[in-house]
C-alpha cells in the first residue's frame, strides 16, 4: 500500500466515493433527464449510500474497535475519516431532500402525479386507506410494547419501523422533565406489502407508513398514542469469512449470513420532528452513537422512489425511450462456433445484445461435439438462463466445471443457492482459491472437431448477468485464438486444482502477473517520453485507488506521458498538481447506463496496445482477487475500442472533469456540438438495426466525434 508521494497528493477514498454519489444526485437534479428518471436517480443515491454505510463505514468502525490507528494514503486516521464522512453525508442528505421536496415532488404534481399524506386525501381515498388498513394491514401488524417484562426487540438491517410514544393517564401528559412513567412501543412497517400504495384516482399514492399511522392507536387499546415516528437502522453487513479451514466454505458462508443482521448499528435514521424523549429512547435502545443519528426531513429511505416510478401509468413521456440492443449479423446464427472460429467478435453491452453470450452456453450444452464447459460466476440474475443451460449441459454428458464465488458481497445468498442447484444437476462446482475472491469473467468451451480439439473462449469486463447487462456498459470478446485457449485452460486448472502455472502466453491475471504487467507497460511509455518520442496512456475504470499504481501514473506524468483517465467512481489520484500530475486529465461519466467497462490502452511506439479487464486499479483487485486482463489482438476490434474511447472522451453532456482543487465540474460546452456518448452509441446501433447504409453511420460518427490521430496532441 506504500507510495512514493506525499499524502497530500492523494484523495481519501471514502470522501471520493461520496463525491461520486453526488454526481449521481446531480442526475436527479438535471432537467435534461426525463422527470421519472430523475426520481429513480434520487432513489439510487439512497441505495448507494446504504451500501456505503454497510461496508465502508462498517470497516472504519472495526478499525477503531481494534485500535487500528494507521493513516490511509491521504494521511487521514480512521476517526478523522468517520468525522469527515459524517459531515459530508449530512450535507448530501440536505441536498437529497431538497431535491425531493423543492424540485421533484412539485414537478410531479404539475403532471398529475402525487405522493400524498393522509391529511391531503379525498373522502374516497380516506375510505380506501381505512379499508386497506383494516382488511389487509391490521391482521399482519404486531404491536411490540417495551417495558420491564418485554425487552426491546431486535431491529433488522434496513427495516422500517414506527416508534410509538403512549399515554394512559393524565399524569402521562406532564411536560418533559417532570416525573412520569414512559411508555414506548414499536410497530414494524411490514415489508410483505409494497411501500408505495396506489390510491383511487390517477397516479396518486401514499406511503405504507402513512397509511398505518392514522390508525396505529387501534393497536394499543386503552392507551393514547402521543406520537408515532418512523425510523430505520443500517447495520454492518460486511463480514470476513475465516478461510483457515476451507473444508466447508459453504457452511461457513451460510452461518455468517444468519448472523449478519445482528451486527452493530452504522446509521440510525429518524424523522426530524421526533420528540426529544422518543429520540433519546431510540438512541439508547439501539446503542447508537450520536454521530450515527441522521435526522430526516421527509420520507425515510428514498429507495422507494424507484417503486413509485414503476407504478406511474400513462406517462412514458417521462421516461427514457425504450432501447433494444443490437445483435450483430455474425451472431444471428445457429452455429456460433463457426462464426467465432472465423474471427474474434467484440460485444459492447448494452448496445450489443447479451443474448449471444447466453446462446453460446445453450449451443455448447446441446452440441454433440462439446466435451467440456468451464465458467466463472461472480454475480448472476435470480432466474439465470445460463445456470439452466449449464445444468442441461451436465445432464447431456458434458464435463461442466463452474466456479461460483460465494463471497461476492450481497450476492452470497443467491450464489449459495445456485451452487446447490448446479451440484444437483451434475456440475462440478468449485468455490475459488483460499483468501482470494474470483472476480474474473471467463468462459471456456472445449470441442472435438475434425482437425482435433479446439477451445472457444469468452472473456468480459462484466458479470454473466442477463439482467444487469441491459443497463451496465461492459465489453466482451469471443475468440478461438489457440494461445488464449491454452491460457484459459491453465487458469481453470489453477482455480480447480493445485496447478501453479508460471507463465501465460497472452493473458494476465491478478494477483500473479497483472500489477507488474501494467507497471511494465507504463514504464515503456515513460521510456519513450524521456527519449522525446510520443507517449500516451488511456484508461477507463470504475475506481482508481491503488496508491502504487497512482504513484506510477505520477511518475509517467512527470516524465511527460499524456494520460487520459475515465474513472466513474472513486479516484484518489489528484490531477493538475504542479510538477506532478499536470499531464493527467480525469473524466467521470454518469448517465443512463452504469459505466462498468475497463479499458487499458498504451501508445506503445504507435502500435497502440489495448487491453480489457475485469479489474479496476484498486489494491483489492490487483492483490486480493483473481482478475483477468486480456489483449485485443484483432486490429479492427482494437480500432473500434479506441473509437469508442474517443467518443467517451469527447462526451460533453454526462462528463464531469476532476479539477486540481478536487471538485468535479461539467464540461464547458461553448462552441461544441452536444454529445452524450451513451445516446450516440445507442443511435449508431439503431441505424444498424434499421439496416441503414454505412454512409449514414459514417455521418453519425463525424457529427458526434472528431476522431483524433494516435499521435495528435502528444
From TrEMBL:
* Limits of the Polyphosphate kinase C-terminal domain: 335-500, 507-678
Output the NCBIfam families linked to this UniProt entry.
poly_P_kin, PRK05443.1-1, PRK05443.1-2, PRK05443.2-1, PRK05443.2-2
Residues at which ATP binds: 48, 472, 568, 596
Record organism = Paucilactobacillus suebicus DSM 5007 = KCTC 3549
Limits of the Polyphosphate kinase middle domain = 125-306
Q: Which cofactor does it need?
A: Mg(2+)
Q: Which GO terms describe its molecular function?
A: ATP binding; metal ion binding; polyphosphate kinase activity
- Reaction equation(s) it catalyzes: [phosphate](n) + ATP = [phosphate](n+1) + ADP
Give the protein family: Belongs to the polyphosphate kinase 1 (PPK1) family.
Gene Ontology terms: biological process: polyphosphate biosynthetic process
Question: Which post-translational modifications are recorded for this protein?
Answer: An intermediate of this reaction is the autophosphorylated ppk in which a phosphate is covalently linked to a histidine residue through a N-P bond.
Record EC number: 2.7.4.1
| Pfam families linked | PP_kinase, PP_kinase_C, PP_kinase_C_1, PP_kinase_N
Q: What domain of life does the native source organism fall in?
A: Bacteria
UniProt cross-references to HAMAP family, sorted A to Z? Polyphosphate_kinase (MF_00347)
Q: What keywords tag this UniProt record?
A: ATP-binding, Kinase, Magnesium, Metal-binding, Nucleotide-binding, Phosphoprotein, Transferase
Mind telling me which InterPro entries this protein's record contains? PP_kinase, PP_kinase_C_1, PP_kinase_middle, PP_kinase_middle_dom_sf, PPK_C_dom2, PPK_N_dom, PPK_N_dom_sf
Q: What does this protein do?
A: Catalyzes the reversible transfer of the terminal phosphate of ATP to form a long-chain polyphosphate (polyP).
State the name under which the record lists this protein. Polyphosphate kinase
Gene Ontology terms, cellular component aspect? polyphosphate kinase complex
**Span of the secretion signal?**
none
What are the binding positions for Mg(2+) in this chain? 379, 409
Tell me which residues make up the Polyphosphate kinase N-terminal domain: 10-115
Where are the catalytic residues? 439 (phosphohistidine intermediate)
